[in-house]
Amino acid sequence: MLKVSSVGAALLFLSASGALGQEMCGQEPIGPQIPKPAEIAQMTPAAADSAKHAAFNDIRQWQGALKSYRDCLDATVATDKRKISEAQRGDKPDNDKIGKLNQEIASTNHDYDQSTNDEELVVNSWNALSVAYCGRTDVDKSTCPKRE
Q1: Which three-class secondary structure state does DSSP give residue 132?
Q2: 46 neighbors 136 (Cβ within 8 angstroms)
Q3: pLDDT over 70 at 12, yes or no
Q4: Nearest alpha-carbon partner for 115 in 36, 33, 30, 19
Q5: Predicted model pTM
Q6: 16 occurs within a structural domain
Q7: How many structural domains compose the chain?
Q8: pLDDT tens digits, residue range 20-44?
Q9: 110 found inside a domain
């Protein structure tokens, strides 16, 4: 019985790793949690300053990971395009392979677009936090945009 379970587990692992291998770049990095404007308004000045600074650092770190993720997506598309070019050579193009590669490119482009949408949401959240922070009268406004 143990042998049957071990074989089943090995087969399950192999099939799962095959699916994982298809997604070379992994999952998009998870975006940072940014305090809401109402939360910033309720904090002490020191806590609000600390939360703003921590959010800024978290965003910078996340954007670095996001850049690496997008670079991987770009490289994946470039590789797939080269493979399509190779599959089109000769007298008989491999239309099945070309179709699968085109689907992978479309999926990768969708992932890239999703990461851009997610980054826009994070930037909008950061802007809302910054506006809430800078709208307070009891905080250090040296990091706030100058109003003319």
Answers
A1: helix
A2: no
A3: no
A4: 30
A5: 0.78
A6: no
A7: 1
A8: 233 689 999 999 999 999 999 999 9
A9: yes
